[in-house]
Every structure is written in structure tokens, then in C-alpha cells.
Amino acid sequence: MFLRPSHFRHPEFRRGVRDMLPVLPGFAAWGLMTGVAMVNSGMSGLEATLMTVLVFAGSAQLAAIPLIVAGAPVWVILAAAFCVNLRFVVFSAHLRDYLMHLPRLERLLTGFLTTDLTYVLFVQRFPAPSDAAAQRLAQQAYLAGNCGLCWANWVGSSLIGVALANFIPTSWGLGFAGVLALLGISCSLVTSRLRVLAAAVAGAAAVAAYAMPLKLNILLAIAAAVAVCLLLEKPGMPQAVPPKAKESGDAA
């Protein structure tokens, strides 16, 4: 399975944990307020708990909650969550060569536990896949430490928010720390001029269409950014190199 004794003993497991530690407070605040928001939106404690454990997608949850409160049609809620999470299609395509040697169940579990930040940290640590057994073990150990700690932090903080929803007013604004964490992740992914343009188009479209009902400005922003990239991207364009590509030599 995803966590094996060989993963725990490997130095890269501890490296993955260490790399995740600096951002845990921001994610904990974000998870706490997400738990509070779910209960305050009208969900029961059981529903909020199940959504926290089964969904594990903070941005999709935050996109869906206002729509649930507004009584939006189910298809709108599902479409919003789907569009918000489309970026994981790109992540999974990139990680395919790293993970295809694993059993299907383990690949599915790894995909479920992978988040924006764990993806960014992983590709910075291991810029290229490898066929060497030792390197593959190192990569899996790093993912186990990184993703495992991220999941535990998010679920734990969200469940605390669910439990304390009646005592923590949303006006505290603790979720802003989580927004800042997500903003940092987004900025670290903007590694080419095309990505800068996509981010600018998405931001401008979201602000310009802010008055649209049911948070449809989010869907419009995503569609606008994707359309611009499809129009401008040329076949065979060189891919952006992760910022820490030069550090891969010590990844074994």
C-alpha cells in the first residue's frame, strides 16, 4: 500500500515531512475555517465530516459551499467543483511516468492524497522520473511523508472546525491564512510567460464577472484562461523547468 515500512525508514520520508512543515499552519487555518463554513452552511456534523474525509479538496469544497448555501442546482455545484479541480488532470499527466510502475490501487491512493503543494514540492525535489529501483523508492518515500502529513493536517484541522463550528465565528477570518498559502502555491507554478498570462487572464475575468450569480465568475475565469492558452500554445513548446531542477543530483 501507499505507506510501507520501507517508506518510513527511508531518509526521503523525513525529507518530505520537513518540506511540508513550514506551510502547515496556513493549511491548518484554512482547514479549520472550511470545517466551520461547512457546518454554518447548513450541513450536519456527519455530512461535514464525510465531506472532509472523502473529498479532500479544499478549493472544491470552498467553491461548492456558497453554491450549496445559495440553493444552486446540483449540476452547477458539480460543474464548479469539476472545473476547479481540472488542474489535477495536468498534475496526473505529469506524474504518470513517476507512478505507472505501481499497482493500480496504490496509484489511485497516491492521486487522492496529492495536492497542489505536494505536487509542487515533489517535482522540485525530483524533476525527472527514473527507472532505477532505488530512485523510485526514494520518490515514493518522499510522497508518503509529504502527502501523509498534508492529509493528516487538513483532515485534523477540518474536523476540529466541524466540532467547534458553533464557537468559532467565521468573522475571525482565519481562512485568509489558507488563501495566502494557496496563493503562494499558485505563484510557484507560474514558471513561464504563458502561465503568467493564464493567471492574469483568469484573475481579470474573475474580477470582471464578479457580479455573476452562483459564483459562475469562477467558471468563466477558468474557461477564459484555458481558451487563451489553447490559442497561444504552439506544438512542441519547451516545458518550464522546475525551480530546483539543479538540486536533483542529491535526490537519491
Helix-strand makeup class: mainly alpha
Which radius of gyration do the C-alpha atoms yield? 19 Å
Helix content: over 70%
Q: Main β-sheet: number of strands, strand sense, barrel status? A: none
Number of strands: 0
- Identify low-pLDDT runs: 237-252
The total of helices stands at 13
Provide the succession of SSEs.
HHHHHHHHHHHHH
Please indicate the percent range of residues in DSSP E strands (runs of 2 or more).
under 5%
Mean pLDDT: 82
Task: Compute the number of structural domains.
Answer: 2
How far apart are the first and last residues' alpha carbons, in Å? 22 Å
| Coarse shape | globular
Characterise this structure.
The chain is mainly alpha-helical. The chain has two domains: 5-77 and 86-189, no CATH class; 190-234. The protein is 71% helix and 0% strand. It has 13 helices and no strands. Helix 4 (45-55) runs antiparallel to helix 10, helix 5 packs antiparallel against helix 6 and helix 6 crosses helix 13 (216-232). The radius of gyration is 19 Å and the shape is globular.
